[in-house]
Amino acid sequence: xxxxxxxxxxxNSNLLCCICRMPFIExxxxxxxxxxxxxxxxxxxxxxxxQCPVDRSPLSVDDLQPANPIxxxxxxxxxxxxxxxPSGCPHTCQRQILTTHVADACPYSPVSCPKGECDxxxxxxxxxxxxxxxxxxxxxxxxxxIQFADLQTHISECDNTTVTCExxxxxxxxxxxxxxxxPAALVPCTQASNGCAWTGPRTALSMHLISCPYxxxxxxxxxxxxxxxxxxxxxxxxRHKVDTLQGIIQSMKHELQSVKAALGPWYxxxxxxxxxxPASDLPPDLQPSNASTSRRFSLGDAPPPPHASHDMxxxxxxxxxxxxxxxxxxxRFDHASQDMxxxxxxxxPTSLxxxxxxxxxxxxxxxxxxxxxxxxQHMVAPVNLSATLEGAFAGVRDxxxxxxxxxxxxxxxxxxxxxNETLRLNDEVMSLRVNVHGLRMQVxxxxxxxxxxVTGRSxxxxxxxxxxxxxxxxxxxxxxxxxxxx
Amino acid sequence: MASIxxxxxAKELSEVKSEGCPIGINLIKADxxxxxxxxxxxxxxxxYKSEVxxxxxxxxxxxxxxxxxxxxxVKDGRQSPIHPHVYSNGHICASILGxxxxxxxxxxxxxLTLQSMLASCKKKELPVDxxxxxxxxxxxxxxxxxxxxxxxxxxNIC
Lengths: 486, 158
Prior knowledge:
The complex is a heterodimer of chains A (486) and B (158).
Chain A: E1 27-30, E2 36-38, H1 39-48, E3 64-66, H2 69-76, E4 79-81, E5 92-94, H3 98-105, E6 110-112, E7 121-123, H4 124-127, E8 136-138, E9 145-147, H5 151-157, E10 162-164, E11 171-173, H6 174-179, E12 186-188, E13 199-201, H7 205-211, H8 213-216, H9 218-263, H10 287-298, H11 306-312, H12 321-324, H13 333-337, H14 349-360, H15 389-453, H16 458-466, H17 468-477, H18 479-485
Antiparallel strand pairs in A: 1-2, 1-3, 4-5, 6-7, 8-9, 10-11, 12-13
Helix pairs in contact in A: 16-17
Chain B: H1 2-19, E1 25-29, E2 35-41, E3 52-58, E4 69-72, H2 107-119, H3 130-136, H4 145-154
Antiparallel strand pairs in B: 1-2, 2-3, 3-4
């Protein structure tokens, strides 16, 4: 949009556009009829009706050409007022340079903030003195550089602002207020941390301290505090140690549980062990360790009843020991048979015995005099579940030794029996061979007798009897031979 | 561009005031750049001798590219002339107010044209379809003028 100029003097009427009645702006002349208009005016008019506004001859935008340079110069050099004259600019200049004046020089042109920090638009002549919200201005009280927008906020909290003490109504700067010890201010007693409940104005504090019972013994408080600190530190250390020990106890408890589970029925919490039977045959180097473990729970030569020793640790081991362990010294097989080792160590001695007999018996006939079960078989004792683990092992070992001995003697007896049987059989075979020979001889004699009875026909009979098939073949299939015989 | 329109009207108004109106034409109201009133009187010998009519100009923002809406005032005791191109509601059928408007025309030029139109009238009579037109005519004559002119042409009146 072109500027709307105000001309200082009345322009020559020949320079007026007949559409807008003002001096031409960017004049355009029609080629067909040589009329001149402002370019903007004629383009608009052609949009309304495609004809020359003056003579109504047909016209289009293409028929326009820039006006003669003389006309352009005449209108461009017309003297116009500054467009900011209403604001106060008295400047006048040629029309063609007014744009430059407005853009660069006119003190009434709107410009943006020269600091480029606010959105405000202001007139150029005010731009230098403009205090935008971002301009740094000194605080009158403390001299600090504050942004103009923040100045009011700053003044209200500036250190040099005069404020009034709430207690004594004295006027002093905010900076001094922090160090101001107002005599009228209410202060607590210096021994308030030790329990003195007194509160009063600062001036009365010294009077109070004379009579304050806490102040009189304030050295004791200091001493006491240091002692408490030491005790607290010791306490902390001890608590740490207790925690560590509890952890160790826990781990030991778990280990003990697993050991108990592994020992099964041989676990005895009361330390009362019955060293009976084969356990006494243990080598002496195994016994002390066993005895020491048992004595650990027995607390002396005269052990208390098993229940008492067990109750000592009942708090630490509250679990299944009370249920599974029996404190009676007498062995209880029915109880042990329910245990996890029952499958490996059958508790009934009769079943073990019959099983052993069943294994050994089939090698011998029931009637044999030397095939009866050996006496050692009865020595295979049942596993003594009331004894210690070592005792039980020794008992099992003895049983195995006895078993090995029995097997050995059994093998020897079997060898002897086998040798005897072989000799007897040899005799039988010999007698049978003699009998067979006698029979053969008798058969031979019978055959010889029969041969003597059929003498003369012996060859034919022999031929007939020995080769009957050949003879018949000969007679039927060879007539020529029979002819020869005839 | 409203500013161009108002500058052009301000220019015309200042010319009217400085140079005066042609004989028989007087400006009676130009308070703004939207509606102007003129009185118009036919000078010399004519059918409308010593009769004074009132013309109303209404301008839009497109003036002078688009024509002003020009009517005779028919209220407050004012009458429109009885003329074959002037309806009884004040609307005027004139080509320069419609198709043949040119931006180079001005308010005074329109007044002079209408003055001569009245002066050249041979017989005072209403347009042939006056009753029908007045029944249906809108307020703004520009919207129907071209159509009406074609009707009048068909009757060989225009």
